[in-house]
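Per your request, structure below.
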């Protein structure tokens, strides 16, 4: 059985014969799978933000307790790694939505002779009057968590008495990497 037949059989159970495989069924099975992936990515992405804030707060607490400014340089590393992971997942979530709207929906509508949008929610929720404001606020929150917090830590390190040449170089490299991450957040911010 080819991969399309396997995909179709997973849509309705193992009782589907290869003869019952149609492009419409395949598209619906793919839709179910891709929406599950999108749902999992959304949960993972949202938890990354909470984890980033918790990890950064833990490093700040340990730094304050030990009075070692060098430890502040751990926050940019945390934010770079988790911020990039957040951004990649966010882009994939958006790509799934675009794929459903631009490829799957029109193809299924064509196959089923439906007039109007198939998978209407994929386009409908994007026309909310407050969407632009929410997207801008979310971008601001993302930039705060993944850029402002680590940059504040770098600046605090620079203002401390713990600035050694090697750590200064590390902090400058971190600042450049954070600037690149910020550009990526702004570049991929969906309008």
């Amino acid at each position: 059985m080819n991969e399309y037949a396997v995909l179709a059989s997973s849509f309705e159970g193992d009782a589907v014969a290869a003869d019952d495989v149609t492009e419409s069924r395949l598209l619906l099975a793919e839709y179910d799978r891709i929406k599950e992936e999108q749902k999992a990515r959304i949960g993972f992405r949202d938890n990354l933000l909470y984890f980033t804030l918790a990890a950064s707060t833990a490093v700040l607490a340990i730094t304050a307790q030990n009075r070692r400014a060098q430890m502040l340089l751990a926050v940019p590393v945390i934010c770079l790694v988790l911020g990039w992971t957040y951004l990649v997942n966010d882009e994939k979530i958006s790509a799934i939505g675009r794929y459903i709207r631009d490829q799957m929906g029109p193809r299924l509508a064509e196959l089923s002779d439906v007039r109007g949008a198939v998978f209407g929610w994929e386009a409908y929720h994007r026309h909310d009057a407050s969407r632009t404001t929410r997207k801008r606020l979310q971008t601001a929150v993302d930039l705060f968590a993944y850029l402002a917090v680590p940059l504040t830590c770098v600046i605090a390190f620079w203002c401390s008495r713990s600035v050694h040449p090697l750590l200064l170089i590390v902090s400058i490299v971190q600042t450049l990497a954070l600037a690149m991450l910020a550009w990526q957040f702004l570049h991929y911010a969906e309008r």
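The mean pLDDT is 86.

Regards,
D.
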